[in-house]
Amino acid sequence: MKMPPDMPGQGAMQEPGPALSGAALDRLMPMHLWIGASGEVIRAGPTLQRLAGAPLALRAWTEIVTLRRPRATRRLEELLQMQGGALKFTLNSRPEIALKGLVVTLPGGAAFVNLSLGISLVDAVGRFDLTSSDFAPTDLAIELLYLNEAKTAVVGELRRLALRLNGARLTAEVEAATDMLTGLANRRALDDALGRLSASSLPFALMQLDLDLFKAVNDNHGHGMGDAVLRMVAAVLRSHFRSRDVIARVGGDEFVVLMVDFVDRDHLLSHASRLIERIEQPMEFQGVDCRISASIGIAVATLARRPSCDVLLQEADIALYESKRRGRGRATFYDDWQRRRHGPGDTAF
């Protein structure tokens, strides 16, 4: 093998034979090391330099690679004695990368070491973004690269498909539990949450709200205005209650709120009063102001009293219509309605 004319230091190690250009040598053996008799590297393959992260010419071979098997050595003479045998190296700048090698003796005590990636192939390809151009065309690594790329493509597509399917499933689940006009929970979501709360030991209040004078909005201004008002009421409810509370639209202008661990009567009445006051403020849509109000019925589940879901909804509904019967724009507890049926007393406002 004749030294390529673009290599430094040719002449002393040149021998008769066909010339091999540096470009051809790099293509045939892109991970070679040409080591002079002094132990300095004359030429290194482009892929090896890419892995090392720096030019390798004129550096001692022992600064670049470490021979591990069949025995460790830092002497070029001992390396040459291992000619023809399978050698195991590691790259000093990347000691985790294992290399396989074969050494050939050149005239004048020089050496030519051809290296390849062993079990580090897949890791090196991923870390250094290696492609088929970084390997000899006859290298088995090319086949492995194709297999790995095919596997990566298939796994990536399966992952994307799984994400799309999972996203579609989650979207469907959210939509199935969401009122599409207001974005609040719907009756199905409310029933699920109410069932879980009833089965737990947590106290909670069920507040049922119905808009007063809403029919007049639809009659006088059309359903576009009515839908806008419902969305504005939904926004008021979101800002008024805690994130842990469940707010649902269960009918045209009817809403239900589950207030977890919030059953103090004074606090509930104050909360309902502020909510009604906020809803009674003028709501503007396309330059038109409209005024509505709200009536509220409240039923409470405590540790001592755990009525069924249906009973709680019925109690809140009875209390709601008691609020409407007594003038609207107010809140009534179910147990207050019960007491009024049997005697004086009125705690609604």
TrEMBL record:
Residues 202-336 form the GGDEF domain. Its EC number is 2.7.7.65. Pfam families: GGDEF. It is an enzyme of class 2 (transferase). It catalyses: 2 GTP = 3',3'-c-di-GMP + 2 diphosphate. InterPro entries: Diguanylate_Cyclase, GGDEF_dom, HNOB_dom_associated_sf, Nucleotide_cyclase, Rev_trsase/Diguanyl_cyclase. It comes from the Bacteria. This is diguanylate cyclase. It comes from Rhodovulum sulfidophilum. The lineage of its organism: Bacteria, Pseudomonadati, Pseudomonadota, Alphaproteobacteria, Rhodobacterales.
